[in-house]
Specification:
Blueprint lengths: L13 H13 L6 H17 L1 H12 L3 H27 L2 E2 L12 E6 L2 E5 L7 H13 L2 E5 L5 H14 L5 E3 L4 H9 L4 E5 L2 H14 L3 E4 L4 E5 L5 H13 L9 E7 H18 L16 H12 L4 E4 L3 E2 L4 E2 L2 E4 L16 E7 L2 H9 L6 E5 L3 H9 L5 E4 L20 E2 L5 H6 L1 E6 L7 H4 L8 H11 L25 H22 L1
Parallel strand pairs: 3-4, 3-6, 4-5, 6-7, 8-9, 8-15, 9-14, 13-14, 15-16
Antiparallel strand pairs: 1-2, 2-18, 7-17, 10-13, 11-12
Helix pairs in contact: 2-4, 2-5, 3-4, 3-6, 4-5, 9-10
């Protein structure tokens, strides 16, 4: 099979597509766990059967090495799908609340219900994982799904649009290809949930549009993720892991280390370690390496080059560019200040600025003076250093002595905080995102004897009996909290034991009736 030609979805068809999925969803076919598991298994084999084509598509779109696509996307995506397949029955099972004397007779239950037809808008940089990973959660939740790929990855977008209806139920799952007109039309419609991954500027547009239809939105928006370096670290390993995290996919990774914060006295030594790793990774230079991706398009190339050209820092490695090949060499820049061009926005490219600071306290203050990052990286052997940085900052995730790998950890959520995003996906967190928790209870008539005090006309006796039932007791008053003048401590009624006995008899009677009727 060859990768098909990229074809945009006609804008005028989009409402019809959404309505068709809504109709199929309303049929109830997705409520069956058996159906969901079959679709998840089909999705897994969509990936497994087409490893080569998926790698080829990303090589065309991003110039990415096949091995890098396998490491960064294919394995992680299959892992997410398999996790959903193995756990969907448990996740979707209604959950009875723990025993509570006041409420157990009403059988309080949490039902896990699909939110409906959902929309997943994903970017160019990791299109396999950021589409099929969350989709696995949506399938497990019982939702119908529209995928909206980036127009910047035409090979992958065309391929996934052809594979989805071949492997999955086309009445429930589909792909809408296109650019701004298609995205705009999609955002005019109401969805059960939107997951948007991309930049903050477009994220604001998505949130604003969704507000008009009261559609809930989860966002993953990236940002400038710092790496804080302690001189007491494993120098060689730290440098290698930072270079790998920064230069993978040519720096076009939302959780790539965007810049380094390091004590001034250690800056030159660490920069040298980074350079040695780059010589090791690309012995003939990245321009001649088949292990280094290109920038996605001319617009992004010019943006990154502009940031690099305007820097007042010192380029100590790299710096060369080739517009025709969309190539920007891995670049290390030292002596970067807070107001430098490289610190003005997320770089999203293979340029690593090093910002010298006096100490860890200044590094923490620097991080806290900016938007909460999607990821925070700390490199140190000191437990006190690691703890100090993590406990005094906020970020979507906090990773010690490595980069990027948290996206593959089963059981971890993937998401940001504040300007770096809201909500989280991956595994169970994807299922939860696309699931409505619906509380239900069934109150039998025999409970009426205990709750009749809620009905008018109200009397002191009714109020007293209901207070015993619904007003919780509190721990002792804190010593620093003043006692209000005129307050009188409530004394336990002498009739409490009698009331409890009556309630116990009523409950026992009710249980007998339940068993007889069963």
């Amino acid at each position: 099979m060859a990768i098909p030609a990229y074809v945009e979805t006609p804008v005028e068809r989009i409402p019809e597509i959404r309505d068709s999925l809504e109709k199929a969803f309303r049929s109830g076919k997705t409520k069956s766990v058996k159906y969901r598991k079959e679709q998840l298994l089909r999705l897994a084999y969509l990936v497994k059967d087409n490893f080569g084509l998926l790698q080829e598509a990303l090589a065309k779109d991003l110039g990415r090495a096949d091995a890098e696509t396998s490491i960064l996307e294919l394995g992680n995506t299959l892992g997410d799908i398999k996790t959903s397949y193995e756990n969907v029955a448990k996740w979707a099972k209604p959950e009875r609340l723990p025993f509570m004397f006041n409420w157990f007779a009403m059988k309080p239950t949490l039902r896990k219900e699909p939110k409906g037809v959902v929309l997943i808008i994903f970017p160019f940089n990791y299109p396999i994982w950021l589409s099929l990973g969350p989709m696995a959660g949506a399938i497990a939740a019982g939702c119908a799904v529209v995928l909206k790929p980036s127009e910047l990855t035409p090979a992958y977008s065309a391929l996934i649009a052809e594979l989805i209806p071949k492997y999955l139920d086309p009445e429930i799952y589909t792909v809408v290809n296109g650019a701004v007109p298609q995205a705009t039309k999609l955002l005019e419609l109401r969805w059960g949930q939107i997951l948007y991954t991309g930049g903050g500027r477009v994220g604001q547009i998505v949130l604003s549009a969704a507000a008009k239809t009261l559609t809930p939105v989860a966002t993953e928006l990236g940002g400038k993720s710092p790496a804080v370096i302690d001189p007491n670290c494993d120098l060689k390993t730290s440098a290698k892991r930072i270079v790998w995290g920064k230069m993978s996919n040519s720096g076009q990774t939302c959780v790539a280390p965007d810049y380094v914060l390091i004590p001034k006295a250690f800056e030159a030594q660490f920069a040298q370690a980074l350079k040695e790793v780059l010589y090791e990774f690309y012995p003939e230079g990245a321009a001649k390496s088949d292990s280094f991706s290109h920038i996605i398009n001319g617009g992004h190339f010019e943006r990154i080059k502009g940031l690099l050209d305007a820097t007042r820092g010192e380029v100590v490695y790299g710096g060369s560019t080739d517009k025709e090949k969309l190539f920007i060499e891995p670049t290390i820049v030292t002596g970067v200040k807070a107001d430098d061009s490289l610190m003005s926005e997320e770089i999203f490219g293979p340029v690593l600025p090093i910002v010298p600071v006096e100490d860890v306290d200044e590094a923490i203050a620097f991080i806290n003076a900016h938007d909460h990052p999607l990821a925070l990286y700390v490199f140190s052997k000191s437990a006190a250093f690691k703890s100090k940085v993590i406990e005094n900052t906020q970020s979507g995730s906090a990773i010690v002595n490595d980069t990027l790998v948290h996206g593959a950890v089963e059981g971890f959520p993937f998401g940001g905080i504040g300007p770096s995003g809201s909500g989280a996906h991956k595994g169970k967190f994807s299922f939860d995102m696309f699931t409505h928790i619906r509380p239900t209870l069934d109150n039998p008539s025999w409970v009426e004897m205990m709750m009749s005090g809620r009905y008018p006309p109200y009397t002191a006796a009714k109020a007293s009996s209901m207070a015993k039932l619904i007003i919780p007791s509190l721990p002792s008053r804190p010593s620093y909290l003043p006692k209000l003048e005129g307050t009188v401590a409530r004394r336990t009624s002498n009739r409490w034991g009698v009331w409890f006995l009556v309630a116990a008899v009523a409950v026992g009677y009710g249980l007998i009736r339940v068993r007889r009727s069963a």
